[in-house]
Amino acid sequence: MLHNDQDKYDIIIIGAGAAGLSSAYTASAMGHKALLIEEGNMGGDCLNVGCVPSKSLLHVAGIVKSMKKGDKIGIKDIQYKVDFKEVMNHVENSVNTIAPEDSVERYEGLGVKVIKGHAEFKDSNTVSVNNQDFYAKRIVIATGGKPFIPPIEGLKDTPFMTTENFWEMRKQPKKLVILGGGVVATELGYALSILGTEVELIFPEPNYLGILDSEVAANVKEIVEDVNIKLNPEVNCSKVSYENDIFTLETNKGLFSGDALLIVAGRKPIIEGFGLEKTGVETSRFGITVNESMQTSVPNIYAVGDVAGRGQFTHIAGKQAVIATIASTIGNFLAPKMNFNITPWTMYLSPQIAFTGYSSKYIKDNNIDISWYKYDLKHFDRAIVEANTQGFVKIGINKNTGKIAQVWLISQHAGEIINEFTSAIAWNKKPAALLSIIRPYPSWSLLIQKVLGLYSKELVKPSYIKWMKRIFGYGK
Q1: Phi, psi (5° rounding) for residue 315?
Q2: Which CA distances in Å does 428 have to 102, 377, 431?
Q3: Gap between the Cα atoms of 341 and 56, Å rounded
Q4: Mean pLDDT, rounded, for 380-387
Q5: pLDDT the model gives residue 469
Q6: Do residues 124 and 298 touch, judged by C-beta distance below 8 A?
Q7: Exposure b/e, 177-211, CB count within 10 A at least 16 = b
Q8: Nearest-angstrom CA–CA distance, 302 and 407
Q9: Residue 104: pLDDT above 70?
Q10: Distance separating alpha carbons of residues 437 and 316, to the nearest angstrom
Q11: Residues 161, 262: contact at Cβ < 8 Å?
C-alpha cells in the first residue's frame, strides 16, 4: 500500500491517557514524527475519573477528619457544614485546572499530531481514524481499561454508578452500598463516610484486602471502621433491583439496601473494538501479552498501561510508555527493561498506606528468606507532636543479600516517604546507603532511619563489641 508523506509517521500512539501521553511526550523528545489518537477525553481515566478526582475528594475528607480530632488537642466545638455539591465542584475544578497539561494544544505544541476520533487497525502498520489511513513503523497501544460490571440479575436495569460516572454526582447519598472491597472501593467509601454518608462495602472475598500483608490489612480495617464504614466479607450478590429511589441487593447474607450503589469490582483491559485481531497480536484475559520491553507478539507493536495488564497504576503506565517508546526506536537489546517485580503504590487514606519492593509471590517463588523489622509510630517524635501515632513501618531484609526486599508503611505522608526505599531497591543499594543520609529533624522521613536502625543494631554482634573495647580501651 502506498502512502503520502503526510500520512506516514514514525510512531502512532492509540490512546491519550497516562500511558499514551507519556509515550507521545517521549516520542516528541526523541524527535519522532508522532501521531496521537484519542476518541475520549485527553488525560484518560487518571485525570478525568481516577487518580486526580479521587485524591481531591480524599483531601477534602482529610480536612474534615482533622477537624473532628480537634477536641483532642484543645480545639473545642468546631462547627462545619459539608456542602456536597460544592465539594464535588471543587473536585471538578481540580480536574479542569490540571487538564491543560494533558490537552491537545499542549501536545501539538510539542510537535505531536493529535487526532480526536476512533482508531481502527487495518493491519500491523496501518491505523484508520475518521476515514483516513495512517501508516507507521511503530505503533503503541494505550487503550486503557474500563470498569468490570459483574453479570448480576437486574443490575443493568438500575442507575448504578461506576468510577466513571461517580464524579457526576452532586447530591450526597444518605447510604452508599459499594460492591467491591479493594483499594478503590475503600478510598471512595472512606471519603464519603467522613463527609457524612453511611457506607457499606460488600465483597465475596473472605478477607478484607487479602492481597496485603495481614498485619497491614488488619490496620487498614481499623482505619476504615474508625470512620464507621461497615465491611461485609463473603457476600455474593445474586440480584439487584431499584424501586422508589432505593437499591436492594439480594445476597447469600440477606438484603442490603441504599439510595446509591457503586460498582467497583475490578477493571478489564480494552482489547476489543479497534481491529486488534487484524494485527495478530496475542492477548489473554489479563490484556495484551508483552515482554520486558512492552513489545507484543508482533514486533513493531507495543502495549502499555492498563491494556497490558501488568500493574494498573498511572506511575507504572508512565514508566512502561517510556520504555516502549525507546525500545521501539533503538531496539529491545539497547533499551531499558521493565521490572514487573517492583511495584510501589499508595492508598490515600489518613494515615496513608504505602508499599514498595518485590511482590510476596515473587519472594515465595524465589525462596527468598526474609528478616522483618518493625518500628511503631507511637514512639516517633513527629507522629507524637502531630497526634498522628496510628501506624508503623515494617521492612523485610533479604537474609542472603542484606538488601531491602519489601517495605510496608502506614503513616502520614507514607506515599512520599516510601520513595526513598524504592530508590534503594531500584538502585540495588543496601540499607547502609539510606542510613548514610542526613535528614532534617523532626521530619517524617526520619522513619527511614528509625526502622533501619533496628536492622543495623542487630548487625553489631557482641563479639565485635568485645573486640572494639579491647582494641580501643573503653567500657572498663
Answers
A1: -65, -30
A2: 34, 27, 10
A3: 30
A4: 96
A5: 87
A6: yes
A7: bbbbbbbbbbbbbbbbbbbebbbbbbbbeeebbee
A8: 31
A9: yes
A10: 27
A11: yes
Strands 8-14 and 34-38: parallel
Would you call 311 helix, strand, or coil by DSSP?
A: coil
Phi, psi (5° rounding) for residue 35? -120, 125
Task: Encode burial over 73-108: b for 16+ CB neighbours within 10 A, e otherwise.
Answer: eeeeeeeeeeebeebbeebbebbeebbeebeeebbe
Q: What is the pTM of this model?
A: 0.94
User: Binning pLDDT at 50, 70 and 90, where does residue 284 land?
Assistant: very high
Q: H or E element: which one contains 68?
A: helix 51-68
> Using one digit for the tens of pLDDT, what is the confidence trace for 169-188?
999 999 999 999 999 999 99
Task: Please name the amino acid found at residue 45.
Answer: D
Mean predicted lDDT score pLDDT of the chain: 95
Strand 198-202 with 175-179, pairing: parallel
Residue type, 189: G
What confidence tens digit (pLDDT) does each residue in 294-318 have?
Answer: 999 999 999 999 999 887 899 999 9
Q: Which pLDDT score, from 0 to 100, does residue 72 have? A: 86
Cell of 63: 480536612
SS3 360: helix
How far apart CA 203 and CA 195 sit, in angstroms, is 23
State the amino acid at position 151 in one-letter form: P
Whether the Cβ atoms of residue 325 and residue 23 lie closer than 8 Å to each other: yes
Q: Which residues contact 89 (CB under 8 A, 6 or more apart)?
A: 170
Report helix, strand or coil for 309. coil
Cell 492477548, located at residue: 283
Would you state the cell numbers that stand for residue 414, as one nine-digit string? 507514607
pLDDT in tens, 214-233: 999 999 999 999 999 999 99
Confidence category of residue 6, pLDDT binned at 50, 70, 90: low
SS3 call for 325: helix
H-state helical runs in 99-156: 104-109
pLDDT of residue 459: 83
* Angle of the 183-194 helix axis to the 51-68 helix axis, nearest 10: 40
Instruction: Report the distance separating Cα 404 and Cα 394, nearest Å.
Output: 11
- 38: amino acid identity, one letter: E
